[in-house]
Specification:
The complex is a heterodimer. Chain A is mainly alpha-helical. Helix content of chain A is about 35%, strand content about 5%. In chain A, a hairpin with a 2-residue loop joins β1 (about 90) and β2. Chain A is flat, with a radius of gyration of 22 Å. Chain B has a single domain, classed as Amidase signature (AS) enzymes (Alpha-Beta Complex), CATH 3.90.1300.10. Helices cover about 40% and strands about 10% of the residues of chain B. Chain B has 15 helices and 11 strands. Chain B has an 11-stranded mixed beta sheet with strand order 1-3-2-4-6-5-10-11-9-7-8, sandwiched between helices. The longest helix of chain B has 25 residues, at about 375-400. The two termini of chain B are about 20 Å apart. The chains are: A mainly alpha, B alpha/beta. At the A-B interface, α1, α2 and α3 of A face α9, α10, α11, α12 and α13 of B.
Chain lengths: ~100, ~475
């Protein structure tokens, strides 16, 4: 697995990660965050001091799984109420920039 | 300078207000008018509230008074409450302290809010906060910083800094906050009020705008432990709208409050008295522990050996979850939108650039990084494994203890600007509070003294998951000794 080969602390490439996160950054922001996040990533490397080979991960504080409820019909929010927060809409639909030429 | 030289809290506690309302010695309308008058007097300086809706609050209050005359009961009937701006209240804006949601109006009530509404609470206004609850100083709000009522050049803590400052200063009788890594307890400690973070799953998170879904929990800011117990009893319980809320019985938390701690075993974790701790904080907390021993508690030194890793684990897990949760803010369905972009991806990128502040951007980037291909196992999976070790530390401790006593924060409130440009230092200040979120246990903080400079010091009581009655009992019993000491 590729993940196993990665060494923690390899420099975070802020400009690249920001693109993955759909976040436009100015050059100043990239420079500032690069320094700050570099320090934080360096600090996080502490975790690698520990032997974690036999430890199960915790994704959730309490062991509950597959919570289900009765599949009953119930009232949802009215269409107009949901659309009321839309920055741009027409005929009950969200308007977005053109996706297909 | 004495602790209360700068201001006097003129509002009643929730318990006192309920008593007066039931006895008919005050009305909800007069109570709400009093709260509004205090806000008008003080909030220009503190900026604890983001919005106050005077006419709606008075209307709700008059309706509560009429309901009472007609014989309606309700544990909060006519009592005004302040809500952190991250919890949805139907018909009110819910900005989460962010520009990206400046126009968002909540179409429904959060479950915690709905439960208070069922008991007759009046919703006065929404309190200021760090953007999307990311911060420890309330300096990250898009709507201006909140000031510490004890010293206006100091931070109130965060992210529920507005709610804590409002309750401490007497601009609110009680408030709801949220706590992902200490965001209720730490500002309560900095401002000198009571902050309760229930166990994960105790209170429904439905209608709480998610920051880190496996850590977030709704909590309370009050002036007394009894008030916290009362609010917790109302808000607790399973909710079909939040599959992580647990179906555990809800005890009568106020009935469990007693004045002594005989038979109670209380652990003091040595890792919470590290070299970085402020000596005034350590002294006050050590004295509080002695007071608990005097009223019957059996005190024992214990160890939580993985404490030093908790901030690193928190940084990974909280930001990873945040980067996923905040992906929804893209300018399509709600909030602001950049109108100049030609294609959707460009619109997302520009909208998010304009809508989010620096701290939120930093955390989204860090969270995206630790989840990204090639780094997931090294950071995210490893952090989840260390989370297991931290959880086990507490399980071992609670095998022999009913509760733990620690400082809530390593230092008292600091000045504006002191840490805002050094995010790592800011995160390290949360060392004593993030552990409870990672382990899913409950915690409460309450005042245990003041520094020579007049800033409050917070004592933290931690308890096993779903044993809120333990921490409330310890906190209440200690609170009574402190009250006796004061007079």
């Amino acid at each position: 697995m590729n993940d196993q080969d990665a060494k923690p602390g390899q420099d975070i490439d802020v400009a690249y990660v920001a693109r993955l996160a759909r976040l436009q950054l100015s050059d100043e922001e990239v420079a500032t965050f690069q320094g700050q996040l570099g320090d934080i990533v360096e600090y996080i490397r502490k975790i690698s001091e520990l032997d974690l080979s036999d430890i199960e991960p915790t994704s959730h504080a309490h062991p509950v799984h597959n919570v289900t409820r009765k599949d009953g019909v119930r009232e949802g929010l009215a269409h107009e109420e949901v659309m009321a927060n839309a920055p741009s809409s027409r005929d009950g639909q969200f308007i977005v920039p053109k996706i297909v030429e | 300078m004495t602790s209360n030289a700068s201001f006097e809290n003129r509002l009643p506690t929730v318990t006192e207000a309920v008593k007066q309302l039931v006895a008919g010695t005050c009305t909800s309308e007069s109570l709400v008018e009093q709260v509004l008058a205090e806000i008008r007097t003080r909030d220009d300086a503190l900026n604890a509230y983001r919005t106050v809706d005077e006419s709606s609050a008075l209307e709700q209050a008059r309706a509560a008074d009429i309901a009472r005359q007609e014989g309606r009961q309700g544990r909060m009937l006519g009592v005004p409450v302040a809500i952190k701006d991250v919890l949805n209240v139907q018909g009110q804006t819910c900005t989460c302290g962010s520009k990206i949601l400046e126009s968002y109006v909540a179409p429904y009530d959060a479950t915690a809010v709905a439960k208070l509404r069922e008991e007759g609470a009046v919703f006065v206004g929404r309190t200021n906060m760090d953007e999307f609850a990311m911060g420890s100083s309330s300096e990250n709000s898009a709507y201006g910083v909140v000031r510490n009522p004890h010293q206006h050049d100091c931070v109130p803590g965060g992210s529920s800094g507005g709610a804590a400052a409002a309750v401490a200063a007497g601009e609110a009788i009680c408030g709801l906050g949220t706590d992902t890594g200490g965001s209720v307890r730490q500002p309560a400690a900095f401002c000198g009020c009571v902050g309760l973070k229930p166990s994960y799953g105790r209170v429904s998170r439905y209608g709480l705008t998610a920051f880190a879904s496996s850590l977030d929990q709704v909590g309370t800011l009050t002036r007394s432990v009894r008030d916290a117990a009362l609010l917790l009893g109302i808000m607790s319980g399973v909710d079909s709208m939040d599959s992580t809320s647990l179906d555990e019985p809800v005890p009568d938390y106020t009935a469990g409050l007693k004045e002594d701690l005989s038979g109670f075993k209380i652990g003091v974790p040595q890792e919470y008295f590290t070299s970085g701790i402020d000596p005034e904080v350590e002294n006050a907390v050590r004295m509080a522990i002695e007071n608990c021993a005097k009223i019957g508690a059996e005190i024992r030194e214990i160890s939580l050996p993985h404490t030093e890793y908790s901030v690193a684990v928190y940084c990974v897990i909280a930001t990873a979850e945040a980067s996923a949760n905040l992906a929804r803010f893209d300018g399509v369905r709600y909030g602001i939108r950049d109108e100049d972009a030609d294609d959707p991806v460009e619109m997302y990128r520009r909208t998010r650039a304009q809508g989010f502040g620096a701290e939120v951007k930093r955390r989204i980037i860090l969270g995206t990084y630790v989840l990204s291909s090639g780094y997931h196992d090294a950071y995210y999976l490893s952090a989840q494994k260390v989370r297991t070790l931290i959880r086990r530390d507490f399980e071992t401790a609670f095998d022999e203890c009913d509760a733990l006593l620690t400082p809530c924060t390593p230092t008292p409130a600091y000045r504006f600007g002191e840490k805002v440009d050094d995010p790592l230092q800011m995160y390290l200040g949360d060392l004593f509070t993030v552990t409870a979120n990672l382990a899913g246990i409950c915690g409460i903080t309450l005042p245990c003294g003041y520094t020579g400079g007049g800033l409050p010091i917070g004592l933290q009581v931690l308890g096993p998951a779903f044993k809120e009655e333990n921490i409330l009992r310890v906190a209440h019993a200690y609170e009574q000794t402190a009250a006796v000491g004061k007079s």
